[in-house]
Amino acid sequence: QAQVMDLLAELQAEYHMGLILITHDLGVVADVADKIAVMYAGRIVETAPVHELYANPAHPYTKGLLRSIPRLDQKGQDLYAIKGLPPSLLHLPTGCSFNPRCDAATDLCRSDRPLLQPVLDVDGAELEGRRSACHFWKETLHG
Ligand code: SF4
User: Fold this and answer.
1) Residue 134's CB: how many other CB atoms inside 10 A?
2) Is the minimum distance from the CB of 136 to ligand 1 under 6 angstroms?
3) Does the C-beta of 133 come closer than 6 Å to ligand 1?
4) 49 near 34, Cβ under 8 Å?
5) pTM value surpassing 0.85
6) What are the tens digits of pLDDT across the range 24-55?
7) Is the dihedral angle over the CA atoms 105, 108, 111, 116 positive or is it negative?
8) Distance between CA 117 and CA 98 in Å, rounded?
9) Does residue 104's CB lie within 6 angstroms of at least one atom of ligand 1?
10) Average pLDDT, the chain
């Protein structure tokens, strides 16, 4: 995996090209990506510059993905897994598609689909490149 990533980075530098990586493993792209778009059930649910996403995610699904990355300093501990299974794209849950698996889900989440909206800092200014499709991105970000 590391060799393939190195090869892609070499090709990218040599040909001055953009590169889009699609992966289920956020650990793989931490060192090579500039920006990340997290998708769930066919929709983008969070975007952010890579280091901001890892340091402070603004969507519970991103949080779950980050928690599920195995860590060398936690040997012998159970791996974290997001509860439940991804939904069928033919029968998406109403409201937020992630609500059946989300510990923070409320009635609002079950009725209204959250749009991808700007993430703001504590002074109300938009954080560049940051978007979240969660009704409670503020609580997620600062929780
Ligand atoms: S909108 Fe609600 S269910 Fe969806 S991720 Fe946010 S808190 Fe969870």
Assistant:
1) 27
2) yes
3) no
4) yes
5) yes
6) 888 888 888 999 999 999 999 999 999 999 99
7) negative
8) 16
9) yes
10) 93
